[in-house]
Amino acid sequence: MKSTDYDKELDKITDFDLEIISIADCRRAMSELNERQDILNKLISSVKKDIKSVESGYLKKRALIREKYNSKGSSGLLNSLKGPFAATRVKEMKKLESERIKSLESYYEIKYVSEDLLVQIEDMQDSVKTMMREMLGNF
Q1: What's this model's pTM, rounded to 2 decimal places?
Q2: How far apart are CA 1 and CA 139, in angstroms?
Q3: Domain encompassing residue 99
Q4: Average pLDDT rounded to a whole number, residues 102-112
């Protein structure tokens, strides 16, 4: 999933109001919070998979770059030209690393925001439970 898709999901999760007047409202709120908690857990799991996928792709591309330039240096003539090939390899590796960092940055941000939302939802659940107990008279 792209990071923009995750942003849309997070917007959906954060867009709700809790107005609790009765026990029925408490139950509806708990149900809604539980649903959003499940969605967040799935979203976090999906983000972690995407992070692993990006990392895996990066390692494969890095190995291909190494292989590409190691095979060129095998003959005697090309071996003497090792300097320019090494500089080109370093450039490609740096470019690949910067691409990796850019793509992972957004995923890590989404992961941290999702984990923070999860903590907030758990806090809200505790508050709703406390309100239910108070309404029921501490049963």
Answers
A1: 0.77
A2: 45
A3: 3-136
A4: 93
